[in-house]
Design a protein that fits this description.
The complex is a heterodimer of chains A (107) and B (116). Chain A is an all-beta fold and 107 residues long. Chain A is built from no helices and 11 strands. In chain A, the strands form 2 sheets. In chain A, strands 2, 4, 5, 6, 9, 10 and 11 form a 7-stranded mixed sheet that branches. Chain A has a 4-stranded antiparallel sheet with strand order 1-3-8-7, with no helix packed on it. In chain A, a hairpin with a 3-residue loop joins strand 5 and strand 6. Chain B is mainly beta and 116 residues long. Chain B is globular and about 40 Å long. The chains are: A mainly beta (107), B mainly beta (116). The interface between A and B is medium-sized, with 21 and 17 residues.
Chain lengths: 107, 116
C-alpha cells in the first residue's frame, strides 16, 4: 500500500498569506492525487483532482502541483472561508489512502 | 442539483450488524462508481470501499480494516448504494459518508456508534 505523509498537521496563518501543504507518497506517480477541504461539521469538498486540476467552482487561489513524490496544495492569498482542515488522497493504488490532515487556523 | 442522502446509522453492540443506504439524485448514478468513506469523531478520513458501475461489472473493493466484514452493493433502479456491516467493532464507530462521481459529490453522513 502507498503511504501518504501529510505536513504540517496544523498551520497558523493570516488573511492574505500564501500557504502550502504537502503530501509525500511512498511511491512515485504523476496523477491520481486529490485535495479536499473540510469545514467543521460538514462533509469534505473536492478542491483539486489529478494533482493539479481545479474542481468546478473552486477559486483560482487554490492550486496543486507535484515534484517527484511531493504533492503540494497552495493557497495563494488566504481568505476567511479558507480556514478549515485539508486532506490529500491518493488513489493510484489499492487501497486509496488519505493524508492525516492539516488544520489551517487563523493567526 | 446533486444530492446524496445517507441513512441507517444507529447505536449497535460489538458483533452486531447494520446496513447503511445512500440514495442519489441529480447524478448519472448508473455510470458512477460510488465510494464509502468514514470519519471517527475528531479524526481523519478513511476510505472504506467502492463499487463500480455496471459497464465495469459492479466490481467492488474494500479497505483492509473492513475487508471480510463489510460489503458494498448497489441497486441502479433505486439509485441507491448500500454498505452492509457485519461483526462490528468499537473502532468502526464513525460518520459514514457516501461519495460519487470521482468524489466530487458527498452526502452529509450518517453516524454509526458501536458500544459495549
Amino acid at each position: 500500500a502507498i503511504q501518504v505523509t501529510q505536513s504540517p498537521s496544523s498551520l497558523s496563518a493570516s488573511i492574505g498569506d500564501r500557504v502550502t501543504i504537502t503530501c509525500r507518497t511512498s511511491q512515485d506517480f504523476t496523477s491520481d492525487l486529490a485535495w479536499f477541504q473540510q469545514q467543521p461539521g460538514q462533509a469534505p469538498k473536492l478542491l483539486i483532482y489529478e494533482t493539479s486540476n481545479r474542481q468546478g467552482g473552486v477559486p483560482s487561489r487554490f492550486s496543486g502541483s507535484r515534484s517527484g513524490t511531493d504533492f503540494t496544495l497552495t493557497i495563494s492569498s488566504l481568505q476567511p472561508v479558507d480556514f478549515a482542515t485539508y486532506y490529500c488522497l491518493q488513489d493510484h493504488n489499492y487501497p486509496p489512502t488519505f493524508g492525516q490532515g492539516t488544520k489551517l487556523e487563523i493567526k | 442539483e446533486v444530492l446524496l442522502v445517507e441513512s441507517g446509522g444507529a447505536l449497535v453492540q460489538p458483533g452486531g450488524s447494520l446496513k447503511l443506504s445512500c440514495v442519489a439524485s441529480g447524478l448519472n448514478f448508473n455510470t458512477s462508481a460510488m465510494h464509502w468513506v468514514r470519519q471517527a469523531p475528531g479524526k481523519g478520513l478513511e476510505w472504506v470501499g467502492r463499487i463500480r458501475s455496471r459497464p465495469n461489472n459492479y466490481a467492488t473493493a474494500h479497505g483492509p480494516s473492513v475487508k471480510g466484514r463489510f460489503t458494498i452493493s448497489r441497486d441502479d433502479s433505486k439509485s441507491t448504494v448500500y454498505l452492509q456491516m457485519n461483526s462490528l467493532k468499537i473502532e468502526d464507530s464513525a460518520f459514514y459518508y457516501c461519495t460519487g462521481s470521482l468524489m466530487a459529490y458527498w452526502g452529509r453522513g450518517t453516524l454509526v456508534t458501536v458500544y459495549s
